[in-house]
C-alpha cells in the first residue's frame, strides 16, 4: 500500500480538545492558502470525519497528525483486519487443491460421455439432429 500524504504540500494544524477520546480537529491548508478543511478525528473510535479511516481502515493524514499530537503510533491504529493475526487467520484453514485426474476416485455411477460431441467438427449440426 502506498501512503502518499507526505508528498502533498498540505499544512496540517492540530487542535486537541478531548484527551479522554483522544480527539482533535485538524485544519488542512494547501500551500496556496486557499483550500481549507477542518476534520474531526477521534482516535479512540478510530474515526475521522473525512470517513477515509472508516472506508479504508488505515489512518491517513488527518489521523496520523492527531496520533502524532497524542504520541500514539499511527501504525497501531490500523483497523484490526489488516493486522498479522487477521492475515494468518485468513490462511489458517486447510486447503486441498484438486489433483490431476489420476488421483480422482472411481465414480460409483456410470459415466455417460460421448467424446464425438465435442471433437466433431459439425458439433452444432449433429447436436440438432435428434432422429
Ligand atoms: Zn481524515
UniProtKB/TrEMBL annotation:
It comes from the Eukaryota. InterPro entries: Znf_PMZ. Residues 46-73 form the Zinc finger PMZ-type domain. GO terms for molecular function: zinc ion binding. This is Zinc finger PMZ-type domain-containing protein. It comes from Sesamum angolense.
Amino acid at each position: 500500500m502506498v501512503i502518499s500524504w507526505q508528498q502533498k504540500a498540505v499544512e496540517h494544524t492540530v487542535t486537541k480538545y478531548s484527551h479522554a477520546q483522544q480527539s482533535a480537529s485538524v485544519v488542512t491548508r494547501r500551500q496556496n492558502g486557499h483550500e481549507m478543511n477542518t476534520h474531526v478525528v477521534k482516535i479512540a473510535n478510530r474515526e475521522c470525519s473525512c470517513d477515509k479511516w472508516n472506508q479504508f481502515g488505515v489512518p491517513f493524514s488527518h489521523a496520523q497528525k492527531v496520533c502524532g499530537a497524542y504520541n500514539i503510533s499511527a501504525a497501531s491504529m490500523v483497523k484490526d483486519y489488516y493486522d498479522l493475526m487477521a492475515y494468518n487467520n485468513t490462511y489458517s484453514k486447510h486447503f486441498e487443491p484438486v489433483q490431476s485426474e489420476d488421483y480422482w476416485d472411481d465414480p460409483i455411477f456410470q459415466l455417460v460421455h460421448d467424446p464425438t460431441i465435442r471433437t466433431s467438427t459439425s458439433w452444432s449440426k449433429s447436436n440438432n439432429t435428434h432422429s
